[in-house]
Amino acid sequence: MKTMTCKQLGGACDKEFSANTFEEIADKSKKHGMEMFQAGDAAHLKAMQNMQELMKSPEAMNEWFENKRKEFEALPEDN
C-alpha cells in the first residue's frame, strides 16, 4: 500500500489517500474532489479549474496522468 496527498494528485489539501494501485488512489482522489466540489470549497474549485484546462489537451492530460502514475509507483510501501 502507498500513500499520496490530495495536493500530490493535483488537488488543494493535505488529505492522504492510501491504495495498492494508482487507479485505486486516483478513484479515491476523484471522490474527495467531488465532495469538495459539492461543499463549494474554493481551493479545490480552483484546482479543478486547472485540471479542466489540462483536459483540453488529451496529450497534456495523458502526460500528466502518466507522470502521476510514475510518481505513485516510485513511492515506498507504507510501513
Explain the layout of strands and helices.
Elements: E1 2-5, E2 16-19, H1 22-39, H2 42-55, H3 58-74
Antiparallel strand pairs: 1-2
Question: How would you characterize the overall build of this protein?
Answer:
With 79 residues, this protein is mostly helical. It has one domain (2-74). The protein has three helices and two strands. It has helices at residues 22-39, 42-55, 58-74; strands at 2-5, 16-19. Strands 1-2 form a two-stranded antiparallel sheet. The longest helix is centred in the middle third of the chain and has 18 residues, at 22-39. The radius of gyration is 13 Å and the shape is globular. The chain starts with a strand and ends in a 5-residue tail after the last helix. The mean pLDDT is 95.
Helix-strand pattern, N to C? Answer: EEHHH
Helicity range of the residues?
55-70%
Sum up the overall morphology in one term. Answer: globular
Number of DSSP strand runs: 2
Which quaternary structure do these chains form? single chain
Rg, rounded, reads 13 Å
Strand order of the largest sheet: 1-2
- The portion of residues forming beta strands comes to 5-15%
Low-confidence stretches: none
Structure classification: mainly alpha
CA(first)-CA(last) distance? 9 Å
Number of helices: 3
Largest sheet: 2 strands, antiparallel
- Total domain modules: 1
Quote the average pLDDT: 95
